[in-house]
C-alpha cells in the first residue's frame, strides 16, 4: 500500500492525485482521474521527484540515434517527451488515450505530432515505422494494462528498440516480469539494458528501466 510511504511528506497531500492513483477500479475510473489531473499533473509529479522519464531517455540514447523516429506511448502531458527532447531527440510523436492530457502535451511543443490513441487500433501504422517506442511509467498498476507491452513489441520491426519502465508495484506482480522473460525465451527480443533506480522520490518508490531490442 503506497499510503504507508506518504505519511509525513508535505508534498504528497491527502487530496492529491498521486495518492489516489494506485487505488483505481477499472478503466473508466482511471480515465476520469487522469482527465481531472491533467492541469496539475506535471507540477505534482515533478514536485515529488519523478525521475523515471529522464532515466528512460538517457538509457534509450545509448542505443537509438537522436534523429530516429520515436513513438512515445502513453505520453500524457509530455513529461516523457520533455525528457527525450532534453537528451536530444528531435523526431518524437506522442500518443495517449486521454485527450485532456494530450492537449497539455500538444501545447508544450516537445512533440513533432500528437494523436489520441484508439484502444481498438492503438498503432495504425506498419510495424517498423518507428525505430523506437517508449512507454514511460505507462504499463502497471493504476495505468495501462500489460497487453500494451505486447502491442508495443509487435509494432516494432527487427532491430527496433522498446524502452519502458516497470515500477516496484508492477514488478511485485509475477505477470509483469514474466512478459519480459517470455519475449526473451521465444527469441522475439533481447534485453539490451535493465536499470533499477528512483521512480518517485517522495514516495520512496523505485522503477526498473528496460530497453528491449526486437530480433524477429
Instruction: Round the mean pLDDT to the nearest integer and report it.
Output: 87
Number of strands: 7
Largest sheet data: 7 strands, mixed
The DSSP helix count reads 9
β content, as a range?
15-25%
Strand order of the largest sheet: 3-2-1-4-5-7-6
Calculate the terminal CA-CA distance, rounded to whole Å: 39 Å
Q: Which word captures the global form?
A: globular
Helix proportion: 25-40%
Keywords:
single chain; seven-stranded mixed sheet; 9 helices; alpha/beta; disordered N terminus; 216 residues; globular; 20% strand
Task: Produce the secondary structure layout.
Blueprint: H1 17-20, H2 27-37, H3 41-47, H4 52-60, E1 70-73, H5 79-86, E2 92-96, H6 99-108, E3 113-116, E4 132-135, H7 147-154, E5 161-167, H8 168-171, H9 175-185, E6 189-198, E7 206-214
Describe this structure in words.
This protein is of the alpha/beta class and 216 residues long. The protein has helices at residues 17-20, 27-37, 41-47, 52-60, 79-86, 99-108, 147-154, 168-171, 175-185; strands spanning 70-73, 92-96, 113-116, 132-135, 161-167, 189-198, 206-214. Helix 4 (52-60) crosses helix 5. The model is unreliable at 1-10 (pLDDT under 50).
Quick overview of this protein structure:
This protein has 216 residues and is α/β, with parallel strands linked by helices. The protein contains nine helices and seven strands.
